[in-house]
Amino acid sequence: MSESYVIAPSILSANFAKLGEEVSAVIASGADWIHFDVMDNHYVPNLTIGPLVCEAIRPCTKAPIDVHLMVKPVDRIIPDFAKAGANIITFHPEASEHVDRSLGLIRECGCQAGLVFNPATPLTYMDHVMDKLDVVLLMSVNPGFGGQKFIAETLNKCREARAKIDAYTARTGRTIRLEIDGGVKTDNIAEIARAGADAFVAGSAVYGAGKDTDPNRYDSIIGSLRAELAKV
C-alpha cells in the first residue's frame, strides 16, 4: 500500500523569496505533489497567492500542482488556475452556490476536482457528487494559517470518508483520493494513514526542516514520513 501514498508539501510554509528552488527541492527529495494554498481574506482570515504564482512555478516541476481554493465565490477563479498549470483543484462546498456545477467546471477545464471539508463541515456534501470527485480533502485544522495543531476528531471523520469512498469504489470501480491537511508530522502520519488517508499535506513539518543553505535538507524529513507510512 505504501507505494500509493502521496506526500504533498504545502508551499505556504516555503521561503517565498526562493519559491522555484523550494518547489524543485522537495520534489527532488521524494515528494509527489506540490500543495498550493489560495486564501482570499474573505472565506479565510489570510491572504496568500494567486494564479500568477502558480504559472510562475509550473516550469519548475513536472509534479502535479494541487491547488486548494479557500476563496468565495470560487467559480470565477477556477479557469485561471487551470490555465496557470494546476492539475488538481479543490474547493470548500460552502464557497459555491452550486457544488455540482463547480466540480463540473474544474473537470471541463481539464483538471482533477475535489471537495474540501473543514473540521465541522459534514461529509454529506459529497454524497450526490461522487461521480465528479477525484479527491476528498479533510482539513485537520481550521483553514487560514500554517503550523496549527492536528485536530484529533479528524481521525473519526477520515474513517467515515474512507468507508464512503470504498463503498463507491466497490460499486463503480473508480477510485477517489483521500487527502488530509493540517498538523501532519512524522509522529502522527501513520495513525492518519491507518484511519484511511492516502495523501498527506505537510507544510511546516517539511519546509521547517533543515537549513536553507543545505541542498538536501528535505531528504531526511520526507524519508522519515515515508518510513512511518511503510509501517502501516
Mean pLDDT: 95
The helical percent reads 25-40%
Provide the CATH topology.
Answer: TIM Barrel
Q: How many extended strands?
A: 8
In this structure, how is the largest beta sheet organized? 8 strands, parallel
Envelope shape: globular
Distance between the termini: 8 Å
If helices are DSSP runs of H or I spanning 4 or more residues, what is the number of helices?
A: 8
- Rg for CA atoms: 16 Å
Structural class: alpha/beta
Q: Order the strands across the largest sheet as they lie in space.
A: 1-8-7-6-5-4-3-2
Task: Give the DSSP E fraction (strand runs of 2 or more residues).
Answer: 15-25%
Low-confidence stretches: none
The CATH level-2 architecture is identified as Alpha-Beta Barrel
- What's the order of the H and E elements? EHEHEHEHEEHEHEHH
The CATH homologous superfamily: Aldolase class I
User: What number of structural domains do the residues give?
Assistant: 1
CATH hierarchy class name: Alpha Beta
